[in-house]
Every structure is written in structure tokens, then in C-alpha cells.
């Protein structure tokens, strides 16, 4: 609606100062011509807004002008009070700031919206971590966050999965992403996007050099590329297994990320066939936790790996040597 867009422009100008018309158009998903028409409408309604042309130009409000109108609808008010990913605020050192911001928003809300917003905060909670995910390692995001906000290059000592020795990289950070409770640094390394798990960073040092990102690439763009690479990466080793129906739900919860295709389920058979992809053979060891409720049909190298592991377990837990 035009009224919502006008209010959005007004609030953006209050918080950002001078903003270029193309940026406003991109944020509000309209044309630059529409933005200029909206500016004329705001001016006609008494808002002291003006446009400056030129390289350093843009659209701005007269200095000192403020409006107390929040413009929040009832649904928008409730949305602000759904506490999503509390751990994210804590990891960034923003817990107290977040609570303070919510108090200020509550005070600024129109009186009719306050009860619904307060009730929402007590009735809806979003927990970002997964069940049985295990305790998350402590992560110090201080230097990473500083580099992101200060627009500086970053030198990392980083330990890759499956290795003991950290490697050194100089990267150009785009930002931080929290996915299912795990923090990642999204950065360019040699002008190509790369993902770094924050809990594997052994040392992080800010350099004096300004960040050098690829032109026109934002955090969301780089994250989308990296996320697609992870999700679309085929497994180096493909396996076929049978899962007992009574354990299928649990199997899908714990091993669903390894599936390369939907389970072959006819709706009544005791055993369901699944196809799995692994980066390497040893990753299939997790299937042993299902005991005889999962049977791998192939390839032979995975069956042999599981047999070796099962024999080793039997050696640990079997009867002591010499027991009759």
C-alpha cells in the first residue's frame, strides 16, 4: 500500500539521514520514478523532505525534523516480540541491549497494540538449536564481529574438520551467520566466497588493510552461494541401506541430511530402502548406532568398514579373555 510505503520512506530517512533514490527504490521494491512521486506526496502533506542531485546527493529530511509516529500495525508489533534465537544475542554480547530495545519499542507502541505484543512475548518462543545436538562449544565472536563492522581484512588461524593443524588465511569478511545455533563467518578468500565455522577459529587478528569485497556482492548473496554449494554437494560415496519401519522416523531425524533421495516406502513393508551420500567411507559409522535396525546393502567398502568397527566394539565389550 502507498501509505505503508510513505511511512517506510519517512522512517528510513529519520534513521539513515540522506539516502539515494535508487537505494530507496531497491529497499521498497519500486521504481526510482515511484520514489520521487512518493517524495512529492510527503512534501505536499507537510513533511519537510527534499532531494539533492549530484554525486553526493540524495533524499533527506530538514535537520531536526522528527515524527513520533511508529507506524506499526498490530501484526508488526507482535512480530517484534517473538524472541528468536536468544543465543544469537548472547553470543554477540547484545542480550541487555536487546531487552532494552524491546522495552523502548513497547513504550513507543500505540496503546491498543501493547497487550497483544506483550502476550506474544509470553506465548511464543523460537529455539534455534536442534534436538540432541550436543553442547555447543564456546565461541568468541568479538574479533570476528569487530572485523565485520570495521570493514577490515582479517587474518585467521583456522582448523578444518578432520585435521589437527590450523592453517593461516587472510580473508575479506562479509558478515556473520547463525544457522541452527552454529555461527559461521562468510568471507572472500582470493576473491572467492568461503565459509568458516566460528568454533574452529583458533586465532583471529584484524589487519590495518580495508576489506576488499567483490563489487555489488552482499552478505546475503555470498551466503546463498555457499549454502547452495553445501546443500547440493553430492556425496563422494553413495550407499544403499534398509531401515526397519519402527525406526524410520528416528533415522530420518538423525541421518536425514545424508539422504540423496526420498525413502522407497510402499507404506506397509517392514523394511524401507534409503539411499545415502557420504563424503568418505568412515562417515557411515554413525549407522552402527541403529544396531540391527539398519542394514547396509552396499557398497562393499562401507559394509567392510562397519564390520571392522563392529568387531572392534565386540572386542571391547565382549567377555574377558579366558571367561568360560
List descriptors:
alpha+beta; 38% helix; five-stranded antiparallel beta sheet; 12 strands; three-stranded antiparallel beta sheet; 11 helices; 324 residues
Describe the overall structure.
With 324 residues, the protein is α+β, with helices and mostly antiparallel strands. It has eleven helices and twelve strands. The strands form four sheets. A five-stranded antiparallel sheet has the order 8-7-6-5-9, with helices on both faces. Helix 2 crosses helix 3 (32-44) and helix 4 (74-80) runs parallel beside helix 7 (114-123). It is elongated, with a radius of gyration of 27 Å.
Strand content: 15-25%
Q: Could you list the spans in which at least 5 consecutive residues all have pLDDT below 50?
A: none
First-last Cα distance: 83 Å
Number of helices: 11
Report the principal-axis shape.
elongated
H/E element string? HHHEEHEHHHEHEEEEEHEHEEH
Question: How is the topology of this model organized?
Answer:
Elements: H1 2-16, H2 21-28, H3 32-44, E1 49-52, E2 58-61, H4 74-80, E3 83-84, H5 86-91, H6 95-108, H7 114-123, E4 125-126, H8 142-150, E5 152-158, E6 167-179, E7 182-189, E8 192-197, E9 201-210, H9 219-232, E10 237-244, H10 248-255, E11 271-278, E12 294-298, H11 300-317
Parallel strand pairs: 3-4
Antiparallel strand pairs: 1-2, 5-6, 5-9, 6-7, 7-8, 10-11, 10-12
Helix pairs in contact: 1-3, 2-3, 4-7
Amino acid at each position: 500500500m502507498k501509505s505503508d510505503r510513505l511511512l517506510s520512506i519517512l522512517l528510513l530517512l529519520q534513521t539513515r539521514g540522506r539516502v539515494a533514490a535508487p537505494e530507496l527504490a531497491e529497499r521498497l521494491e519500486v521504481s526510482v520514478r515511484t520514489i520521487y512521486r512518493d517524495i512529492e506526496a510527503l512534501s505536499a502533506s507537510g513533511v519537510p523532505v527534499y532531494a539533492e542531485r549530484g554525486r553526493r546527493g540524495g533524499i533527506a529530511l530538514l535537520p531536526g525534523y522528527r515524527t513520533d509516529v511508529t507506524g506499526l500495525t498490530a501484526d508488526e508489533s507482535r512480530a517484534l516480540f517473538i524472541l528468536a534465537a536468544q543465543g544469537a544475542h548472547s553470543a554477540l554480547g547484545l542480550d541487555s541491549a536487546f531487552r532494552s530495545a524491546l522495552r523502548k519499542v513497547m513504550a513507543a507502541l500505540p496503546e491498543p497494540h501493547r497487550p497483544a505484543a506483550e502476550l506474544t512475548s509470553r506465548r511464543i518462543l523460537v529455539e534455534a538449536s536442534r534436538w540432541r545436538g550436543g553442547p555447543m562449544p564456546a565461541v568468541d565472536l568479538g574479533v570476528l564481529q569487530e572485523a565485520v563492522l570495521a570493514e577490515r581484512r582479517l587474518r585467521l588461524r583456522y582448523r578444518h574438520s578432520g585435521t589437527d593443524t590450523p592453517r593461516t588465511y587472510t580473508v575479506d569478511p562479509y558478515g556473520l551467520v547463525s544457522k541452527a545455533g552454529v555461527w559461521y563467518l562468510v568471507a572472500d578468500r582470493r576473491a572467492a566466497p568461503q565459509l568458516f565455522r566460528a568454533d574452529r577459529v583458533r586465532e583471529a587478528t584484524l589487519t590495518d588493510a580495508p576489506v576488499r569485497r567483490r563489487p555489488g556482492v552482499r552478505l546475503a548473496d555470498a551466503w546463498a552461494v555457499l549454502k547452495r554449494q553445501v546443500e547440493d554437494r553430492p556425496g563422494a560415496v553413495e550407499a544403499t541401506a534398509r531401515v526397519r519401519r519402527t525406526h524410520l522416523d528416528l533415522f530420518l531425524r538423525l541421518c536425514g541430511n545424508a539422504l540423496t533421495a526420498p525413502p522407497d516406502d510402499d507404506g506397509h513393508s517392514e523394511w524401507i530402502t534409503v539411499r545415502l551420500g557420504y563424503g568418505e567411507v568412515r562417515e557411515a559409522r554413525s549407522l552402527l548406532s541403529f544396531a540391527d535396525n539398519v542394514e547396509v546393502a552396499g557398497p562393499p567398502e562401507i559394509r567392510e568398514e562397519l564390520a571392522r568397527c563392529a568387531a572392534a566394539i565386540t572386542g571391547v565389550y565382549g567377555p574377558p579373555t579366558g571367561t568360560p
